[in-house]
Amino acid sequence: MDKADQFTCNPLESGRPTTRRDLSGLLLASAALLCLPAPALAQALAAVSGADQIGALRAALGQGASAAVSLLGATNGFWSNPQVKIPLPDALERLRSPARLLGMGGQFDELHQSINRAAEVAVPQSISLLQSAIKAMSVQDAQGILTGGQTAATDYFRKVTSGELFNRFLPVVTKATEKVGLAQQYNAIAERGSSFGLVDAKQAKLEPYVTNKALDGLYLMIGEEEKKIRANPAAAATDVARRVFGAIGR
Fold first, then answer.
1. In Å, how far are 72, 126, 196, 224 from 67, measured between CA atoms?
2. Confidence (pLDDT) at 229
């Protein structure tokens, strides 16, 4: 393997301690196929039945998605993770320090934590939809993921689940933020500011902003899981996985 291939298969440094020891050997074994050079990969795929390809991939992706959801859906899953912690909208963040000088900093702190808590509550609702997307995956989808880039599976998840997940997350986020008075004040002012180009349209209303950030965090962490799977091949744990990876000489 040349230097370019080595770089492609190296895991990214996340700065987080390893907390995913519950992933099975199958999850890690999937990477053997994903890190092969394209010609060898094509030859290997030709030697493996479509049923075996999709069976092994479904099991690995299901466990990877579950690991990401478990991490983010726990208390402090967003709040204590700098990779996904949701910031206040820019307009609010600019006012935070002056507000603190006036003794109003607590309201900003409360809102900041509440939007991250909302994301932590919303994310577990994604697992059933992610599992459905995995079950609905065709052989063609699986082959595209197997031969795709570092986050091909994550890109697949985003494509087929983001719209429905937005609709599921938004009511949860709205329920959490409506308890904080500053959220309503922000919406009233920001929507007017957006019409004059003073506030980014994507931040004109708090609830959709937080919902989109929660989705970004979810897909980011699924992507991190996928990169680790691709970078960390190990022995397969099931018969179907052993057949798949045995066929490619691993």
1. 9, 12, 43, 11
2. 67
pTM for this model (two decimals): 0.73
Residue 140 CA to residue 142 CA, distance in Å, equals 5
Q: Looking at the domain assignment, is residue 197 inside a domain? A: yes
Residue 48 is given by DSSP the state S
One-letter amino acid for residue 218 of the chain: L
| 36: DSSP letter | S
pLDDT digits (tens, 9 = 90+) for 210-248: 999 999 999 999 988 877 766 654 533 355 544 553 443
Asked if the structure places residue 7 within a domain, the reply is no
Is 213 part of any domain? Answer: yes
User: How far is it, in rounded angstroms, from Cα 129 to Cα 161?
Assistant: 7
**In the chain, where does DSSP find H-type helix?**
3-9, 25-34, 38-46, 50-73, 90-101, 105-122, 127-135, 139-146, 152-177, 181-195, 206-231, 239-247
Looking at the structure of the chain, the number of domains it has is: 1
Amino acid letter, residue 108: F
> Are 195 and 140 in contact, with CB atoms under 8 Å apart?
no
> Could you list the residue range(s) of the whole structural domain that residue 122 is in?
21-247
Cα–Cα distance for residue pair 4/7, rounded to 1 Å: 5
Would 202 be classed as within a structural domain?
yes
Cβ atoms of 65 and 157 within 8 Å: the answer is yes
Lookup: tokens for 18 = 């390893």
Could you tell me the pLDDT band of residue 94, with boundaries at 50, 70 and 90? confident
Q: What is the pLDDT of residues 206-218, one digit of tens each?
A: 899 999 999 999 9
Neighbouring CB atoms inside 10 A of 125's CB total: 15
